[in-house]
Amino acid sequence: MSQIQNKRKAGSDVLRRLTLFEKAALLSGGGAWKSRALPRRGLPALFFSDGPHGLRKQEGIGDHLGLHASRPATCFPTAATVANSWDTELAEAVGEALGNEARSQGVDVLLGPGLNIKRSPLCGRNFEYFSEDPYLSGKLAAAYVRGIQRGGVLACVKHYAVNSQEFRRMTLNAVVDERALRELYLTGFEIAVKEGKPAALMTSYNQVNGIQSNENPQLMLDILRDEWGYDGMVVTDWGGSDDHIRGIQCRTTLEMPNPGLYAAREVLRAVERGELSEAEIDVCLKDYFRTLRRAAVQAKKAVPVDPLRQHALARRAERESAVLLKNDGILPLSGEETVALIGDFAFMPRYQGAGSSLVNSRRVETLAGQLSQRLGNKLIGCASGYARHGDDSKRRAAKRLRRALKLARKASCVIFCCGLDEMAETEGLDRKTLALPAAQRRVLHSLADVNPNIILVLSAGSVVDLSVERDARAVLHGYLGGEAGAGAMSELLYGEATPMGKLAESYPRALSDTPAYPYRKLRGNCAEYRESLYVGYRYYDRAGLSLYHPFGFGLSYTSFSYRDLTVEAEGVRFFVKNSGARDGAEIAQLYISALESAVFRPEKELKGFAKIFLKAGEEKEVFIPFDDKSFRVYDSARGCFIEEEGRYRILVGASAADLRLAAETERGGERMLIPQEKKRLPHYFSGAAQQVGRTEFERLLGRKTERPALAGELLRGDAVHELRRSRGLLARLIYRGLQRALNKSAAKREPNLNLIFTYHMPFRAFSKFGSGRISPEMTEAVLLMLNGHLIAGGRKFFLEGLKNRRENRRNERALR
After folding, report:
1. Would the pTM of this model clear 0.85, i.e. be above it?
2. pLDDT at 7 over 90
């Protein structure tokens, strides 16, 4: 018998020995970061940890928001940063380093990478996601997964699916048409699952078309399991489960983090009522046991972790990902210039986002420290210039500015460090503007008045308003560069390395230009994705809008030329030459445009890319293969992807707006069963995605969109912030206290993640975090009190509390 067969037999034997209650207990978490262990059956717990760009393993009291301290670890550049490298080998190396570090700290499952599509630049968690494009996102995510799992732990891709905003994320219903769902929001996950083969997948908090993500049969069974062939474990986001039984029916493996044994009792009652079969439970447990076996194999891969090597890789990742957005020839610096270093970020770098991904970094470099070592007395001085979170008095602001201007007048050039602060980009909150803080803009403008040689070093995890470019001769965007980002930026500024990063997202000139802008207000709890496929460059292309910088854009200290495009059956060939005087790397991008189609389509879509390292004067032939994503389109009538027959334009170039080579090809294929009518969907065919009315959106959806009516009383699915509309005095008092605390946090520009999370959490989630101390019936009692029925609610809470405690003790004895 083979080793694989032995393992399968062992898993089946364990399953047969388990009681029904033990099976039920294994389908929910056993702690903030653990699955449930059954020692008497020889079943260990799986240990989970956050870590999209650095491990966040907590000791003692655990939480999932970054509130309590975690063990020191390497902070790598965030996913949004590494995405600008367009380098799957680099992504895989970072993933392997993350895996090694996680394994060294006893972690089994690393919660990452995140690969949700950047529908809007306002999403407060965009720093954790790769791109506005699903192909680029999927390829990089698959590379991370391969690296993490080669490094010794299991990867858990997230958040599946259509999780594009933080505001009300736990109660939101994402309403999206089928083509946008399949072609845009799920394609990245498809690539990650098929090519990366992750052992785990995390579902999102939100509903998708009215159904909770982990309870959605289309997402969980039809697509993930049947179509993609996924056989790994599925876990809910922490507190993201609603109906545990429906989740099991959709093959959700674990309800996290720790609902306690009442969840097992729910399963038993469902079996007794005939709502759930033991066979359905066994299917989930087979996925779980398969994951346990994989974790045991991975644990043998432990290797010593060298913090210096990790730090060096973090620096390399930032060096190869930073994007040079503007340069009139001032960069690279020679080292002979006298430099004034201005900006709070030079001393306290903004190098990671806030929330569950917050890393307790081992060592953080600063640009002030790096340039002081490099320049000596050529660095004539450093000044903050502005207060990170805004000045509390005009006098202090004026004093800071005077100090900065004095240095700027003496220097031959000024390096000005600025960007978004911690409150602007955090889990749980969305941004309200693309603008950099007003204090930073004022200081930059004043500096440009006294010294024209301004070099802007920018730190932000997502799109910002780049009107500030007019006050600078050069702009080097490091995104969020991790703990070694300052060293990498120093090397790029002084030409020890050549910039090679290119934007993984478009930079519009105004927030109002972004495709989802007219639809940012919710209808009830519904976010209507009326723009459909027109996200990012797919929209800007069709709308003909002017941008600060297009998708795929990035400058270099050298230049590249393209020639001789040949289209073959298997892909495209062309030549790229480094026509400049410095060694460097070019990211060549392949876009495909359907010239004939029975449905509306973007003007072009990214279908391949290649990063080519070239010495000065060197030329290489490049081949980019076609794959099953190259020409496909989703046929809603058939319920599957097809390759539509017709003519296609093949485009190759340096960015979405800088296409150097073009050719046409004819493809055989199929015809759409039911073509879309232009007269019924006029704004979709024209690309005027911001002008879609409700009727046209409903035609696209094929159903009505009803605005949910707010109930008169608070319900279990309502979020805590709905306390404001309760008739109960207690509810209104609690709401006012929460709101005051949130306002205080916002005024300090310090995100209180506990408050933010609580504010948006639905009442049903209380029982998911309580280790079984709060049952759903106790939550119903709390709602009674909040709705004004204090005596009845209090009595019910007391009685249900006693009952829950008694049953928990009985269940715990049964497990022991």
Report:
1. yes
2. no
Average pLDDT value for the chain:
93
Cα angle, residue 770 at apex, residues 764 and 772 outer, rounded to 5°: 95
Q: What is the DSSP letter of 333?
A: P
Four-residue CA torsion sign, 138, 144, 150, 153? negative
Give the H/E segment covering residue 735. Answer: helix 729-748
Residue 715 zone, left/alpha/beta (φ > 0; ψ -120 to 50; rest): beta
- How confident is the model over 525-552, as a mean pLDDT? 96
Q: For tokens 């493996």, name the residue.
A: 253
* HSE-up (13 A, CA, CB side) for residue 113: 44
Contact partners, residue 729, CB within 8 Å, separation at least 6:
788
Distances in Å between the alpha carbon of 490 and those of 309, 368, 476?
Answer: 19, 10, 11
Which residues, 6 or more positions from 363, have their beta carbon under 8 angstroms from its beta carbon? 307, 311, 483
542-556, 651-665, 677-691, 694-708: which range is least confident on average? Answer: 694-708
Q: How far apart are CA 260 and CA 767, in angstroms?
A: 8
Active site residues: 237
Which residues face 649 on adjacent strands?
Answer: 593, 664
Spell out the domains of the chain, with CATH numbers in brackets: 20-36+46-54+73-299 (3.20.20.300), 308-505 (3.40.50.1700), 509-548+677-708 (no CATH), 558-672 (2.60.40.10), 720-815 (no CATH)
